[in-house]
Specification:
By secondary structure, this protein is an alpha/beta fold. Helices cover 35% and strands 22% of the residues. The longest helix has 23 residues.
Length: 442
């Protein structure tokens, strides 16, 4: 009998898009049905004529992709909807239906075969299209756990009784390419620079996820003239039956390098910004090595972006950035440089292994890992509202618990497992408690 959908109040804590993205992502991964109401109800709109909450285009794109990937039955999957029922098809039944076809899902994945023999699959590709510069990075955030822990190969899982030994040895070995069309540099969202220079290196080198590479085909901006861009992500999912090991972020080490990315509308602005940032960094860290991985022309005076990443001797990366969305002058260049360098210095003085924006993005990996994962966020650094929200969603769906320090004994999610089996015992207890409460009230 299918489990009753888990009800989630979209107004909880941060009450915005993160709750929605993570909840649907974990629902698709675990095949646990969910029902979210009051979606993004805590959000306000810049225009009185437009509704503040509900599903926006970027949220809808991620939800639709996950619904297709997990063959979910949905209600309310439309723009501006404040409620969403998301019921993935239970693992096993669909695997048996599609086993003969040799694919998982429907048409979201396209096989790219070897050009010589034409039969060996060398890569699987999928694409997500936005018609406006909604954040590419937030869409990636929503689908990444599913991509890593439930690859197209994982459908023929051991519990459905259809996986043969030959296929089992290659499970999870096919690389994935995900192309997302949208915004790369968008206000109130992580930039593609932050994702490629901070998040992905930390996930791969410190958390232990398989390699992920990023290629910007075209930039997309929310400032200046709205422009839709394209980013290509290549990754290798975890193989079936594998688990992510617990990770410990406890010894940051010394800051050894600074990576500075500059995007401005002309060479004079980039030169000025580069000079000011270099002076500010050397004033605080006289012996630091400063690298400039990106110096790029934005071709629009209302587009200015600065990211500074501190790299440590133990491989941690902490970043701070600023997207300036108005016409800039010399005074504004100095303001941006001073703001970002000051904020980064404040991060470093806390002594933690992660910056404010990395903290919440690690929560889902702590919850899915096997064992006790620890993340040192620094002195006097409390969990952000986004972090508290991510923990709340993970606890509700995965059954894990985070303590006040942010430590979590993860659920040890196994790629290809029937996670519903684990949760059935909990549901029986909860339903019994509800029935007892009902009887006591009558």
């Amino acid at each position: 009998m299918p489990p009753k959908p888990l009800s989630l109040d979209g107004r909880t804590l941060e009450g915005g898009g993160q709750l929605l993205r993570l909840a649907v992502s974990l629902s698709a991964l675990t095949y646990l049905p969910i029902s979210i109401f009051s979606i993004r109800a805590n959000r306000t709109s810049r225009r009185a004529s437009q509704p503040a909450g509900g599903l926006k285009a970027a949220h809808l794109a991620a939800v639709e992709w996950l619904a297709q990937a997990s063959q979910a039955e949905t209600t309310g999957m439309k723009k501006a909807s404040s409620e969403l029922d998301f019921r993935p098809l239970q693992r096993g039944s669909f695997a048996r239906e599609t086993k003969k076809k040799g694919v998982k899902g429907t048409e979201i994945w396209e096989d790219v075969c070897d050009s010589v023999d034409g039969s060996s699959v060398v890569r699987r590709e999928t694409e997500i299209q936005l018609d406006s510069p909604g954040s590419v990075c937030l869409i990636l955030q929503a689908i990444l756990p599913y991509l890593l822990f439930d690859s197209p190969d994982a459908a023929g899982s051991p519990m459905d009784g259809t996986a043969d030994m030959a296929q089992e040895t290659t499970t999870g070995s096919v690389p994935l390419r995900v192309t997302i069309n949208g915004g790369t540099n968008v206000s109130k969202s992580p930039s593609i620079e932050y994702i490629s220079q901070v998040l992905i290196p930390m996930l791969v080198k410190k958390v232990g996820v398989p390699p992920i590479s990023t290629q910007i085909i075209k930039r997309g901006w929310s400032s200046g003239r709205a422009d839709v861009g394209t980013v290509q992500f290549d990754l290798m999912p975890f193989p079936r039956r594998s688990r992510l090991s617990a990770f410990h972020f406890t010894d940051r080490g010394e800051v050894t390098k600074m990576h500075v990315s500059l995007l401005a509308s002309d060479s004079a602005a980039r030169t000025t910004l580069k000079r000011i940032v270099t002076e500010r960094l050397l004033a605080r860290h006289p012996d630091i090595e400063i690298l400039f991985p990106i110096e790029e022309d934005t071709r629009n005076g209302a587009r200015l972006y600065l990211l500074i990443v501190a790299e440590t001797s133990n491989g941690y990366r902490l970043g701070r950035d600023c997207l300036w969305e108005r016409k800039s002058n010399a005074s504004m260049l100095e303001t941006v440089a001073n703001t970002v360098t000051k904020q980064l210095e404040e991060e470093l003085q806390r002594g933690g292994c992660v910056d404010e924006y990395m903290q919440d993005q690690l929560v889902v990996f702590q919850a899915l890992a096997e064992g006790r994962s620890v993340v040192d966020s620094g002195e006097d650094r409390y969990a952000t509202l986004h972090t508290k929200t991510a923990r709340w969603v993970s606890e509700r769906i995965l059954g894990v618990v985070f303590d006040e320090q942010g430590t979590c004994n993860g659920c040890g999610f196994e790629v290809g497992e029937d996670f519903l089996d684990r949760r059935r015992t909990v549901w029986v207890v909860e339903e019994a408690a509800e029935e007892l409460e009902r009887l006591e009230m009558t």
